[in-house]
Amino acid sequence: MAKSVDEFNKKRLRSSNITVVISIALVLFLLGLMGLILINAQKYSDYIKEQLVVNAYFDENYDAKDSVKIAKLEEETFKKVQTLAPVKKATYISRDMAAQEAKKTMGIDSDALFEENIFPSSIEVALKPEYVDPAKIDGAIKVIKAVPGIIDVKNDSTLMVDVYNNLSRILKWILGFSILFLVLAVVLINNSIRLKIFSKRFIIKTMQLVGAKRRFILKPFIIEAIILGAIGSVIGLLALGGVWYYFTSQIGSAFVQDNNQYFWLIVLVLGVGIFISVLSTIFATWRFLKSNVDDLYYS
């Protein structure tokens, strides 16, 4: 009879542990998925902002005999622009290149309308994402315009502001959902752990009544919480990695190439799983340690 009771308790314990692990894995899978979306959304946002360029123009009026001197001055100016703090990338566009681009835009193959290079040479500047901010864009343009040799800087400020505001709004929503999932992770994992500890409340109280110290009682529960939290986190991360690999292979893009960010996401998910499991275990166990025997029947 005693043997059958022990076997029943062991099966119930295994079932309880499996339930906790699955709960942790599912919650952390969703939390990790939101983290991946947030990381890639931020990178994609930066990529779009870098496509919003400003054009810095050189003086188009100069004597043909000074062309060599002017070319040298433009080269020096281009190098200075590349070193400016707001500049992510700079591309030099010569008069010939500007003329070819104009013909391509207007769909003209003949050179009849372009007896000479009527377009000035310029520098196409992609700003760093933080300088696309409407509050900083004017300052960035002033810095570029102050470089000797640049006579004018033009940009579509309205488009930049609209794109920046829309991207910022989207990122805020994604960040908000990520925080919501983090709160849900805390609540759901905490509830799973509390139910597990609740099933052992009589054991906890019995150990206390026979003289066991609270630290001694807590230790095995904390160790178990660490193990369950780690197992649940690993399962959640493996599922997340599999789903993300399948998704990126289907669309043919790996999105963010920075493995360092993925590493810290893994550390975060693993840490959240273990930390919440341990913290919930401590609070749930401590509650029964402080309660009376009679309260165990009504908890």
TrEMBL record:
Localisation per UniProt entry: Cell inner membrane; Cell membrane
Location (main, coarse): membrane
Membrane topology classification: Multi-pass membrane protein
Keywords for this protein: Cell cycle, Cell division, Cell inner membrane, Cell membrane, Membrane, Transmembrane, Transmembrane helix
Domain FtsX extracellular: 54-153
One BP term from GO: cell division
ABC3 transporter permease C-terminal domain: residues covered: 177-292
UniProt keyword Membrane, yes or no: yes
Lineage: superkingdom: Bacteria
Pfam families: FtsX, FtsX_ECD
InterPro entries: ABC3_permease_C, FtsX, FtsX_ECD
GO CC list: plasma membrane
Transmembrane parts of this sequence: 20-39, 170-193, 221-247, 262-289
Job description of the protein: Required for cell division and gliding motility.
Family membership noted in the UniProt record: Belongs to the ABC-4 integral membrane protein family. FtsX subfamily.
Matches recorded under PANTHER family: CELL DIVISION PROTEIN FTSX
Protein name: Cell division protein FtsX
Species name: Chryseobacterium elymi
